[in-house]
Amino acid sequence: MKRSLFATLIIVFCIGNLFAKINPKNLVSTSVYSTVLKEKRELKILLPSEFQNTYFSYPVIYLLDAESNFGTGVEVLSFLMDNHFIPPHVVVGVPNTDRFRDMTPVDSVLNKTIFPTRGGADTFLKALETDIFPFISKQYRGNSRRLVLGHNYSGLFVMHAFISRPELFDRFMAFSPILWWNDTAMVNDMDQFLTENSSIRKHLFVSFAKEAKNMLEACKDITKLMEQKAPGDLKWKYEWMPDEDHYSLYRKSLMRGMEIIFKDYKYPSVEDLAAGGIKSANSYLRDIMLNYGRKEKLPYSLLESVCLQLKQNEKYDEAIKFLTYTSVNYPDKAEPYFYAGEIYEITEKPKQAVKFYEVAHNKDKGRWDYEQKFLAMQKLLEELKNKEQNQAHL
């Protein structure tokens, strides 16, 4: 039975608390002077585990409100990257200096007394484009594939970036965005944006928990608009999380959103590979190259599991094909040859069986069972040969 990424990670987290295992060498604190904002901006960075051993560029995740959310964010994201749920990214946490200034779009004078510096979201977008993006590209090999995620006011910023500067990011994740801002102006802005754009090749994930009435109403309006007007090439998803509140949904939203947005990156299941064969394996790897620019191969443990399932289900021809594919990708492994020997033994082809048992034994001299199986098959062949000779003399 297939299990969701969120359920899997909750189980792992409860058993081993693996989210906390982040290599300190992959964490960097730095700063860049913004010529747009006329101030220095601190940055918190998580590099992919493979970063020091590569030369190519990486997509970038921009994590807003990093002064409060970077710890939780990198715990989840490092686990997802290290376990192939999402591609390796450079994660850039951007702490606030004036949250209400940078995270809110221009509004009416209604909030002037409460938020005197509000309305600088467009300026902050310009600062990202002019100052921070080039810095990350030069210093940490960040490329133009970008994801931005935010919660609360920074969730509002994400929604604003989606409709005002969609070219800056490929993927957008907004958790409980403050849609009541400026008398829910975001609803009308989204309506206009969807009406004016027949093609939006982006990803958008939005989540809400138990919210105030005006937030929920705006959320329903946004969802209805998306259902009615979103173009076919916009990949969007709305998640309602009634068991969470406005502040507790961050971790769950992050895991669920990543599962949805990068669902094509997750390894195919044993069942899918067993049904689709080598063609499905190659199709997956081709898509990873086309969509993410990564040349990969399926892990040995996954290929071995497919081979064993095919063998157990007595689909011997398919199993032999997959074992051949596995041995080509992992030539030092002895097990595929041993499994092939077992199949040929079961199908009463001892001459082929002994050849594969011999290769398995030579590749792993430490396996006593491999040696014994090879010697037993040699003995069987000798007995069969003697039996044939005796019959020939009669």
Percent of sequence in beta strands: 15-25%
Rg of Cα set: 28 Å
Low-confidence stretches: 11-16
- CATH-assigned fold name of the largest domain: Rossmann fold
Total domain modules: 2
Proportion of helical residues:
40-55%
Global outline = elongated
CATH architecture descriptor name of the largest domain: 3-Layer(aba) Sandwich
Q: Which secondary-structure class do the elements indicate?
A: alpha/beta
What is the first-to-last residue Cα distance?
59 Å
Name the CATH superfamily classification of the largest domain: Alpha/Beta hydrolase fold, catalytic domain
DSSP E strands, number: 8
Q: How do the strands of the widest beta sheet line up side by side?
A: 1-2-4-3-5-6-7-8
Provide tags for this entry.
8-stranded mixed β-sheet, elongated, Rossmann fold, 8 strands, 54% helix, 2 domains, alpha/beta, 394 residues, Serine Threonine Protein Phosphatase 5, Tetratricopeptide repeat, 14 helices, single chain, 16% strand
Write the layout of secondary structure elements.
Layout: H1 5-16, E1 27-34, E2 39-46, E3 58-64, H2 66-82, E4 90-94, H3 99-103, H4 121-140, E5 142-151, H5 153-164, E6 171-175, H6 181-196, E7 203-210, H7 213-229, E8 235-245, H8 250-261, H9 270-292, H10 300-312, H11 316-329, H12 335-346, H13 350-363, H14 368-393
Parallel strand pairs: 3-4, 3-5, 5-6, 6-7, 7-8
Antiparallel strand pairs: 1-2, 2-4
Helix pairs in contact: 5-6, 6-7, 9-10, 10-11, 10-12, 11-12, 12-13, 13-14
